[in-house]
Amino acid sequence: MNQPATAQAATPPPEAALGEVQAGTVILRLAGSWTIQSQLPAVERVDRALGSDVEQIAFDSADLSAWDSGLVTYLTGIIDHCQGRGIEVDQSGLPDGVRGLLRLAYAVPERKGARRTEKRASFLQTVGEQSIDLARSTGEILAFLGESVLALGRLLRGRARFRKADLWLTVQEAGADALPIVSLVTFLVGLILAFIGENQLARFGAKIYVADLVGLAMVIQVAAIITAIVLAGRTGAAFAAQLGTMQVNEEIDALRTLGISPMDFLVLPRMLALILMTPLLAVYANVMGILGGAFVAAIIGDLTLTEYLNETQKAIGWNHIIQGLISATVYGAIVAVSGCLRGMQCGRSASAVGLATTSAVVTAIVFIVMAAGVLTIIFNSLGM
Fold it and tell me: CB under 8 Å to 357, separation ≥6 — which residues?
């Protein structure tokens, strides 16, 4: 499409200049290099320059050095403006290749309403649509929760149909394979908590209580929340991607055709795996967080490991451990339900799988934080 340029080093910029009107005809002179990489002139400048006495527009392309689809796009804009004002267009002065492309461009007339028009919704319409979407999504979440409870009921009655090998594989992926990232994150969180607490408690000569601060924070909530968020970004997203891909490949439809419940065969093993493994990972996260605090206390706070661990043991009671285990179990169920829900809701395209994965992580984190607030209030009211 490009015509050869004579001077590759110095490419002249594109120029469009209108001549004088003679007998109702005006000539648009095109010069320079008209390529997509160049800064092309605006079509509106020519449209504003056309007076009411213009009946025909012609083109002079003698000084045109190079062109590509950028010139064709510019000319289609000129032609559209001229047709709207009833001005005749003479294309004889254009290169043969350009005229051929213009004929192809106008060979099939544009269908009315094919162009996307910007439609700004009113405030009330936006609020109404968002409210309807919220109500619909809430209903879908509650329906999925109901189906999950029914699946657990079938499991307790021994009527759930799934492969135990899938359960143990998911347990390994959600549990043992997550140990490195959980270790790193919780150790650093415990280290940060201890560093901040040491700076503040040192003013009162109470560095020993850094152990109480880190131990209670990690055991009651922090370890469970950090573990759940890590699992949401790691395992929950994987659940959504796996089920979403199966939705795209119509594998879930095939299971229904065979009379196999996707809730039993796909969702139930994933829920059981996270419900079982999240409390165990939270216990491990407690240990790593406390060790992170002990590291800071030994380096900065001049405390021995024995002093730190003895103070931690005094501060932490069984009620605190039970709170953490209950919270971790709830968070694990949230992560599993969020990932499986978004995966089952996935559309039939690759982009839908990506959206489902993102939505699974966001949904899980939001509900984890909400559940943490609710559980804190409940534990406080129970005196735990």
Answer: 237, 240, 241, 244, 342
Task: Count Cβ neighbours within 10 Å for each residue of 342-351 and write b for 16 or more, e otherwise.
Answer: bbbbbeeeee
- pLDDT band, residue 1 (cuts 50/70/90): very low
Among left, alpha and beta (phi > 0; psi -120 to 50; other), residue 260 is beta
Residues 177-187: pLDDT tens digits? 899 999 999 99
CB 48 within 8 A of CB 27: no
Q: Are 384 and 322 in contact (CB under 8 A)?
A: yes
Task: Give 205-251 as a DSSP string.
Answer: T-GGGHHHHHHHHIIIIIHHHHHHHHHIIIIIHHHHHHHHHHHHTTH
Distance CA 47, CA 27 (A): 13
Report residue 306's pLDDT band, with 50, 70 and 90 as the boundaries. Answer: confident
Please report the sign of the dihedral spanned by the C-alpha atoms of residue 261, residue 265, residue 266, residue 269. positive
What value does the mean pLDDT take over residues 100-123? 75
What are the pLDDT digits (tens) for 54-84?
Answer: 888 888 888 888 888 888 888 888 888 888 8
Tokens of 367: 């509900």
Q: Residue 316, SS3?
A: coil
pLDDT attached to residue 4 = 46
Q: Which residue's entry shows tokens 């165990």?
A: 280
> Which position has the token pair 């943490």?
372
CA distances from 196 to 201, 296, 365, 366 (A): 9, 10, 25, 26
What count of other Cβ atoms lies within 10 Å of the Cβ of residue 197?
23
Stated pTM of the model = 0.70
Contacts of 364 (CB under 8 A, 6+ apart): 228, 232, 236, 334, 335, 338, 339
So what's the pLDDT on residue 176? 87
Listed in sequence order, the DSSP H helices in 86-178 are 96-105, 123-156, 164-174
Residue 298: burial class (beta carbons within 10 Å; 0-12, 13-18, 19+): middle
Query: HSE on the CB side for 122, CA within 13 Å?
Result: 3
Question: Which phi-psi region, left, alpha or beta, contains residue 192 (left: φ > 0; alpha: ψ -120 to 50)?
Answer: alpha
